[in-house]
Amino acid sequence: MRTLEKAEIVGPLGKGYRAGVYALSDGRVVKLFLSRASSLSDATTEFGITRHAWAAGVRTWRVDEIVAYRDRYGIVGERINGVTFETALRTGRIGLARALKELLSLHLQLRRVPSPPPSLMAARSGGRADAALASIAGDPTAFAGEGLCHGDLAPSNIMLDTDGRAVVVDWSAAFVGPTVADVVVANGKWRKALARKRQRLRHRIAAPIVAFAHRVLVARQMGWPPLKISLPLRSLS
Ligand SMILES: Nc1ncnc2c1ncn2[C@@H]1O[C@H](COP(=O)(O)OP(=O)(O)OP(=O)(O)O)[C@@H](O)[C@H]1O
Ligand SMILES: [Mg+2]
Asked: Which of 33-37, 51-55, 113-117, 124-128 reaches the highest mean pLDDT?
């Protein structure tokens, strides 16, 4: 494993709860995990899942290698030139209808991904995934179709690239389960993000409408009955 030199790191691009993403001097990025204890397994698992999704045709970042940096580990890969959907929506760079269309396209891409090998997912434990699964446990028969779930399709984990296309990042909450779980999580996260106080008034008003439109669009595209999927979706949003 290569050791990343400090001089290669140009500057920060984004920060979440467990990691920071930094631009590298060669034009790529590194996602560095914060927690020392689990840093290597976090990096290895996320690297494997991201690569699996990328190879299956999901628009995500291309990951190249795992690196060591001081007492931490990270994933080096392609830099997505663009902003998160969170920023794009807030600044009016993308409209709600267009954003929904891109989200739907991601759901469809994700649904086609075959389940990764169990060894890759072994280090994954529940959390948000459990919440999503618990919420649909009432009627599992309505949601046939297991596969790789991203687990956190929040607007902060989807980027809008310079071609105006959605690219999903951050597979840290991924799991294997009913693919409708991603719809459940996305619906709640988008509604919450749009309804935030600092958002424009029209977004706050639009939040429940967008959530409903998301449900209907998904139901139409994926053949899930809208009434049935509205039950679990409501419980998480
Ligand atoms: N490949 C990339 N190219 C450019 N910017 C990126 C890339 N990946 C992530 N980012 C930026 O960094 C931010 C944080 O990345 P990410 O969501 O992967 O980390 P995180 O939320 O800290 O992850 P975790 O949930 O594991 O704590 C993103 O919201 C985005 O702004
Ligand atoms: Mg994130």
From this structure: 51-55
Domain 82-236: which topology?
A: Aminoglycoside 3'-phosphotransferase; Chain: A, domain 2 (3.90.1200)
Kindly state the average pLDDT of the residues 109-122: 86
In angstroms, what is the span from residue 154 Cα to ligand 2's centroid? 8
Instruction: Specify the pTM.
Output: 0.89
Q: Which residues line ligand 1 (CB under 6 A)?
A: 13-14, 16-19, 21, 29, 31, 61, 78-80, 84, 156-157, 169-170, 172
Question: Counting atoms of ligand 1 from 1, which one is nearest the CA of 42?
Answer: 26
- Over 90: is that where the pLDDT of 16 sits? no
Q: How far apart are CA 179 and CA 182, in angstroms?
A: 6
Q: What is the per-residue DSSP string for 157-184?
A: GEEEETTS-EEE---TT-EEEETHHHHH
- In the reported structure, the alpha carbon of residue 16 is separated from the centroid of ligand 2 by a whole-number distance in angstroms of 5
Q: What is the CATH number of domain 2-77?
A: 3.30.200.20
